[in-house]
Design a protein that fits this description.
The chain has 182 residues and is an all-alpha fold. It has a single domain (46-173), classed as Tetracycline Repressor, domain 2. The chain is 73% helix and 0% strand. The protein has helices at 4-10, 17-24, 28-34, 38-53, 55-60, 67-82, 87-96, 98-124, 133-147, 150-155, 160-173.
Length: 182
């Protein structure tokens, strides 16, 4: 959606229909023909981004790939999509559009359930250790939440790609170099 970059960069606090019309190069009455309210515009814009994120399920449930490859593909796909979501936009949705925020949190919950299914499959196949799938899925959710916060990356002087590489290393190889001395 054409409005998304503006919302991402400037938030929604000062969203007005005349401003939307100007950004779209349309009259205010034309905008009202397509959208009945600002909330409808925000819903449509958020839906556009969530639709892009839905590909995660297709990637994780792809039985033609092994578990590790699926996770690598997930991260490869999700990093640019997630880093294109600003914490400013998310905070404004939460503050000014609570009904839209409910949809966002429902989407995050759904995404966590997809991750849980992926981890459960890996545990059942004996690929992953028997760690509760909910814990694994929520650690990913926490990681993804940090990726959408540009201050986190800047504060730690790390790119999203570097963060992923470290996270992936921790997730699939563990923290300990050698565990037989414990």
């Amino acid at each position: 959606m054409e409005l998304y970059p503006h919302f991402r960069d400037h938030g929604l606090k000062d969203l007005r229909m005349d401003k939307v019309a100007k950004m779209l190069g349309k009259s205010k009455s034309t905008v009202y023909e397509y959208f009945k309210s600002k909330e409808e515009i925000v819903t449509e814009t958020v839906g556009y981004k969530m639709e892009a994120l839905l590909k995660h399920e297709e990637i994780l449930m792809n039985q033609d790939e092994d578990m590790k490859t699926r996770y690598e593909q997930l991260m490869e796909y999700m990093i640019p999509v997630l880093t294109d979501i600003s914490s400013l936009l998310l905070n404004d949705i939460k503050e000014f559009y609570p009904q839209v925020w409910e949809k966002v949190t429902a989407f995050f919950d759904y995404s966590s359930s997809v991750l849980e299914k992926y981890y459960k499959e890996g545990i059942e196949k004996g690929v992953f250790r028997n760690i509760h799938p909910t814990i694994l899925a929520h650690s990913d959710r926490f990681f993804f939440n940090e990726l959408v916060d540009p201050s986190f990356l800047a504060k730690h002087n790390i790119t999203a790609q570097e963060a992923f590489q470290h996270y992936f290393e921790l997730k699939f190889r563990g923290l300990m170099k050698e565990q037989d001395n414990w």
